[in-house]
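Possible race condition, two jobs.
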Amino acid sequence: MKTVWLQRLLKWYASIQNFMRGRYGRFDQLNKTLLVIALIGILLNPWLPFQLGRILALFLFLLLYGRFFSKKIYPRSNENQTYIRNIEKMKHFFSRKKQTTSNQQTYIFFSCPNCQQKLRAPKGKGTIRVTCSKCHQKFEQKV
């Protein structure tokens, strides 16, 4: 009698495994994002008109379940890879903006008196002797 519940549990587990065979079944980055946005929609529902948060959350949950139980594995994987690439582009765009502002803080930019080529040098070095990379003229610049 004690092993009946274990046998039923194993049978139920096998049926779940059989159901999930050949399905995408991954909780990837895109599914995580859909879940977080759906939960935010549920939390913001009291302040949104026309139950907009609930409708948004329902739509996103249906999309999440559709992706999770889909038998089209490669298109779901490609969707996730495209999402990751787009997120990386956005991160790179914003980090590049931050990097240019840090360049302005650590370098001084000036132009060659002969050819007007833009040059840079680290701040706080005093008066340095600079050779232009374009016309090779040597001059002194205070940085």
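Job #2 (started ~2 s after job #1):
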Amino acid sequence: MSSFAREADVVRNSFGYHPNPKDLAALLGTVRFPRLLVVGGSVPDVVDLAEGVRVLSSDVDLPRGLYWFGGLEVPIAMVVHVGGETATGVAVPLADLGDDDPVRNAWDWAEDLWEAADGVPAPAFRVGDGVVTRADGKDTRVSGRKYLGGSWRYEVRLDARTTHVVEAALEHAPTAGGPIDWVRSEPATVERFGATLTRAKLHSALTDTVFSFRATRTLFRPYQFKPVLRLLQTGATRVLIADEVGLGKTIEAGLIWTEFEARNAAARVLVVAPSSLVGKWQREMDERFGFELTELDTAGLRRFLEQHSQDRLPRRFQYVTSLERLRKWDGLTELAESPPQLDLVVVDEAHQMRNPGTRSHALGELLGEWADARVFLTATPVNLGEDDLSSMLELLAPEDFDDPARPRAAPRAQ
């Protein structure tokens, strides 16, 4: 809500409500509230903008959204993630506030809930801090944080994927220094020393072991392992499979999925396919690979969005949804602001996303924010022409194909 900055004086001297809780940072960045109450869901990374933060896990009989109560001796802001349907935003000056005004009643709720809520401790790590996992000594860096379930959780990159780790599982990375500082510092644990040696030995993925070989109920076809071998040899996580019709692109994608699963890198998987192929994907993945795909219909997508907004998505899932349904889904707007973190996205008939300016192309751009590992399938790459092929490659790997007039291959891993 960009108007917060322009209406700072109004906020300071009014009780108000705004239906989008994602604008909390904009509110707190304009007017500092000594107290912040979060009801349901997670506490976003705004603790530096509020002096005291408390959280309550239960839902309330209030519209979901963002509330502020200015002009008090100790002003308070409140975010309701789990409650009733959103309402129209309003800001009521204190001079016009009646005893039966809805925002006046919301203030009564806020004061009562504040007393019942639990305090949120200060986070141990800031965004950008270098950290080390306590269990295996892996180095990484904090890219985000939120408070959920009684603990700060930090977004980090581990094993080539984004994940969330609780605060107790991390410690500050050692400060780099010269040889004297290194000698005088505390010795590393056996686990950290072993992990360092292992990472040095396995600098890249295991390229000489194909876990998906003989691990599926499929007839062995050497060419179908080429995409898997390509990923292993280059260290890449994205591939365009452009075989002709009938050569088994679905099986090739399933082999890649199996390989990721064997390496614990496919906990959250989404398959996007034309509606006529959704059933085929469910059958083949189940019969050949043992992956049970659950279709996200309209109700399923709504439930997916609700769980994501409350940070309650399952730790593991295998979903499939139709391209037609997903590209028209109004929930994409909200997910564009806060993308879900998936491990693998597979798009069948990916050439339908080739035309910039279309909903399908916009969907392809959004999917690029959902997962690093992406597999595109198409049977008509050459017939589409160089421009269309470049457009698909740019969706798949924009950092390598950002100039349609000059497509280039990603560098091979050494």
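Confidence is low (pLDDT under 50) at residues 201-209, 211-215, 406-414.
Logs attached separately.
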